[in-house]
Design brief:
Layout: E1 2-5, E2 16-19, E3 29-39, H1 41-48, H2 55-58, E4 71-79, E5 91-95, E6 107-111, E7 116-117, H3 124-128, H4 131-144, E8 152-156, H5 161-172, E9 176-181, H6 186-192, E10 196-199, E11 212-217, H7 224-229, E12 231-239, H8 244-255, E13 261-263, H9 272-280, E14 288-293, H10 297-305, E15 312-316
Parallel strand pairs: 8-9, 8-11, 9-10, 11-12, 12-13, 14-15
Antiparallel strand pairs: 1-2, 3-4, 3-6, 3-15, 4-5, 5-7
Helix pairs in contact: 1-10, 4-5
The structure holds NADP nicotinamide-adenine-dinucleotide phosphate.
Length: 321
């Protein structure tokens, strides 16, 4: 099968597509024919090997598992020993990051519990763009942020996969939503439904004198003190990730009394089945950058890393859709 191979840390342009053996599914794994995959933060970090601390997970000197990719939509083509959850031919999708990477390939062996049934009516391209970003957004906005109808919300790093789902979730509850991102993305973000958009290179949202009931962050670029200024007295701040130094500072801030500041520890695929009716009915939709061809993946990892995308970068791995 074709797979994108990453033998050493460095520029995405060094990556090559190689012919490698199709993986054999192990205990409670299934083999999935990958029809579509996406580019995520993990892929960028794994390929460039930075931040360096991530090498503790990926491999100190070189990636232990050389095929990047953590999100897929496709069809089950074989069952490993003791795999009982799926049948050959089932259309599935999922965030496979708990079970390892490896979706930048024509086939991936995935723990059966890392997959969900594809919602009715969605193409593989549409489905692949959903699980990682929607779960992060849902867990931040609904489960931890406990958003109430009509509240004022600000999303920092709003133009990517998580921010665009967080917007849709907040709009379903009749909220006013501000979005912060780069100037180039602001027009597209207004068209998506943000009530007010801010260029982070021009303005610091913590210095505007505006207060929000919920701030959802994908970048964690501001200090805990600054964030506190942007919250109403009962306001909550929830981040899904970003600057490692700021995240550590937030943990300390929480220990020292800022109980309303939380970091999401993602539970992959947790709510996907419950959200499937909204996805099938079109009430929630991934914003898709692409779909692109498989051979473009090295360029697309760079595109993601440099923040040139809006929504999810999706790659078509097979012609079947
Ligand atoms: N909590 C967990 O368990 C967990 C698990 C996996 C991943 N994550 C994290 O989840 C996040 C994924 O979010 P995503 O997929 O939505 O990312 P994304 O698609 O990269 O979107 C982030 C957006 O933020 C913008 N941005 C960059 N710098 C900014 C700044 N200083 N201020 C405001 N906006 C800025 C980016 O635009 P430009 O780059 O063009 O400026 C981009 O549009 C990552 O932080 C990842 O590490 C968390």
């Amino acid at each position: 099968m074709k797979a994108i191979f990453c033998e050493s840390y460095g520029a995405p342009e060094q990556l090559r597509s190689r012919d490698v053996p199709v993986p054999i599914p192990k205990d409670r794994q299934v083999l999935v024919r990958v029809h579509a995959t996406t580019v995520n933060d993990y892929d960028w970090s794994m390929v460039i090997g930075r931040p360096h601390i991530y090498r503790l997970f990926f491999g100190i000197f070189r990636p232990r598992r050389p095929i990047p990719g953590m999100e897929l939509a496709g069809k089950v083509v074989a069952l490993g020993p003791n795999a009982t959850r799926w049948r050959v031919g089932d259309a599935v999708y999922g965030d496979t990051s708990n079970g390892g990477l490896g979706t930048f390939a024509e086939f991936a062996a995935v723990p059966e519990d890392e997959l969900r049934r594809m919602p009715e009516g969605l193409s593989f391209v549409e489905a692949a763009a959903i699980p990682h970003a929607l779960e992060l957004a849902y867990q931040a906005v609904v489960e931890i942020g406990k958003l109430k109808d009509g509240e004022r919300v600000l999303i920092n790093g709003a133009g990517g996969g998580v921010g665009t789902f967080a917007l849709q979730l907040a709009k379903r509850q009749g909220c006013t939503v501000w979005g912060v991102d780069t100037g180039e993305k602001l027009q597209a973000m207004t068209a998506m439904g943000f009530d007010r958009v801010i260029d982070y290179k021009q303005l610091d949202f913590t210095q505007l004198g505006e207060r929000f009931d919920l701030v959802v962050d994908t970048k964690t670029t501001r200090s805990a003190g600054g964030l506190a200024r942007a919250l109403t007295p009962a306001g909550r701040y929830v981040t899904v990730g970003g600057d490692p130094g700021r995240l550590i500072a937030l943990l300390f801030a929480r220990w020292f009394g800022r109980r309303n500041m939380r970091i999401v520890a993602l539970k992959s695929n947790k709510n996907q089945d419950a959200l499937a009716p909204l996805l099938s009915g079109g009430a929630l939709k991934a914003v898709i950058d692409g779909p692109y061809a498989f051979h473009e993946l090295p360029r697309l990892i760079r595109r993601f890393g440099e923040g040139l995308h809006t929504g999810k970068v999706v790659v078509r791995v097979s012609e079947e859709q």
